[in-house]
Amino acid sequence: MYDANRDVQTMSLEDNTVYEAVAALATDGHTAHTADVVHMTGLPEEAVRRSLASLAEKGAIETRDGFHSLGPHDWEVEY
C-alpha cells in the first residue's frame, strides 16, 4: 500500500538530503551517527537533528541513541 510519508518525492529538500546521507552511511547493517550526517550534508546540526526527528516520526528512518538507519523499505540501496 502507498504511504505518502515514506515517498522520498514528497520530502522537503532538506529531509531528502538527510535521508540520502543516512542511506549512504547506513549500509550493510551499519548505522549513521548524527555527526556523520552533519558532516556529509554540510547542513547545520540543528537542521539535521530536526530533519532526523521528522524522518523518524514518518518511519523513514529508525533512530536509537544518536544512531540512525533506514526504516522498513522494499527496495535495495547500492552505494
Report on this structure.
The radius of gyration is 11 Å and the shape is globular. The N and C termini lie far apart (27 Å). It has a 3-stranded antiparallel beta sheet with strand order 1-3-2. By secondary structure, it is of the alpha+beta class. It has helices at residues 13-25, 34-41, 45-58; strands at residues 32-33, 61-64, 67-70. It has one domain: Arc Repressor Mutant, subunit A (Orthogonal Bundle), CATH 1.10.10.
Offer a quick outline of the entry.
By secondary structure, this protein is an alpha+beta fold. The protein is built from 3 helices and 3 strands. The longest helix has 14 residues, at 45-58.
CATH-level-2 architecture: Orthogonal Bundle
Poorly predicted ranges: 1-5
Rg, rounded, reads 11 Å
Quote the average pLDDT: 82
The side-by-side strand order for the widest beta sheet comes to 1-3-2
CATH classification class: Mainly Alpha
InterPro entries: WH-like_DNA-bd_sf (IPR036388)
